Amino acid sequence: IPGHSFATPTPLGPPEVLATAERHWIHWTKQLDDLVKGADFYVAAGNRKLAAFTLHQAVEAAYACFLLVHTFYFPRSHNIKFLRSLAEDVNIGLVEAWPREHRFDRRRFELLKRAYVEARYSDQYDASAEDLHWLMTRVRHLRDLVADLCQTRINELKAKAGTV
Questions:
Q1: Please, are residues 119 and 80 in contact by the beta-carbon 8 Å criterion?
Q2: What is d(CA 124, CA 86) in angstroms, rounded to the nearest whole number?
Q3: With CB atoms counted within 10 Å of each terminal CB, which end of the chain scores lower, N or C?
Q4: Residues 16-20: what's their mean pLDDT?
Q5: Residue 61, Cα to own-chain centre: how many angstroms?
Q6: Closest Cα partner for 155 from 7, 18, 1?
Q7: In whole angstroms, what is the distance from residue 69 CA to residue 11 CA?
Q8: Residues 106, 114 contacting (CB under 8 angstroms)
Q9: How far is CA 162 from each of CA 13, 16, 65, 150, rounded to the nearest angstrom?
């Protein structure tokens, strides 16, 4: 309404912060678990392109979960290298999800990053069964790391809210 000022924003209190983090946790862990199951299905069905795309989506969901629970911010980006960097800036422990020492490890992460577009639209894209097995193992490890770190964060928020 013209002539009326906006309400002054106020920070959320500990109970609201906890409720928001728990809401993000519940939504994104379900999404992540469903995507991992979907990738398993596509691998078993022999659809390597769709398996790679679904693994990409699982990684995106894992980083969305982590960032939203920890910072309440998730950029609208599908670039998992960028999302990985943001999440690792918040907690360096996430680095262990994706080995970087060897060229083939970096190549496989890049293969997963490219899957968002190329697995759907390029007839040249191919992830081998070996690549998919490695990626599935790393995605599951990322999922477990995110679960542990998010549960720790939620427990901290419960303590601040006095609900422990």
A1: no
A2: 30
A3: N
A4: 96
A5: 4
A6: 18
A7: 16
A8: no
A9: 12, 12, 23, 18
